[in-house]
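Record filed below.
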Amino acid sequence: MEYFVWDIDPLLFSLGFVKVRWYGLMFALAFLTSFYMMQWIYVRENKNPEELDTLLWYLAIATVGGARLGHCLFYDPAYYLSNPLKILAVWEGGLASHGANIGIIIGLFLYNLKTKDGFLWLCDRVAVSCTMGAGLIRTGNFFNSEILGEVTDAPWAIIFARIDHLPRHPVQLYEALCYFLIFLMLLWVYKKTAFQGIYGLVFGLFTSGVFLARFFLEFLKTRQAMYESDLLLSTGQVLSIPFFFVGVFFVVRSIYQYGKQKNA
């Protein structure tokens, strides 16, 4: 069987010492799409979109910082704790989505101390805007030929020629597709509930949906952490379990409180 061969250079173009990579482009597009989605939400809810300039900085720092620390501490702690200055070497690669999510939650909490918009109100709206960005970042992983899938004989398997010549699951695209579908679901739920005083529902659906998908897709990925080859579950799966239950908690909590409010 002939499989599709993926051999795209991760470097999009270079101008002297300036090098633009596909992954960097997708990461930048993730922030831009999230920003414009938040602008649309703020205009829709009669809030001042200029407030988003500050929120963007909080989220940018929290996302990159959380993702980098997550990679270092979750996937190769022995190396980075022995070489702490390497934690700062973001240009060498290594970002973890679980760490990014923790960073975003902390960033939103700190931002909310300044604005008093309501923490769950913010979480719901940022959840909608971030999900498409997550799909774009996974597409960037595909361009980078990283986060590889397991070897398979499925007819849609892809050979990542820059890595090896084995047909593999294009698990980055599976994950990106899941995130795009979750984005559509969250957008629909947001439109239905934005003005009904339901807080935490969208955030809960985002957290449970994204990490449920992540848990099952991890079965199709090659192991990433240095220490997990003999473990039953991957590091990504172990980290996804508490996120999933946190999401379920907020879904149940928001529905319960809305029912209580309606019956009051």
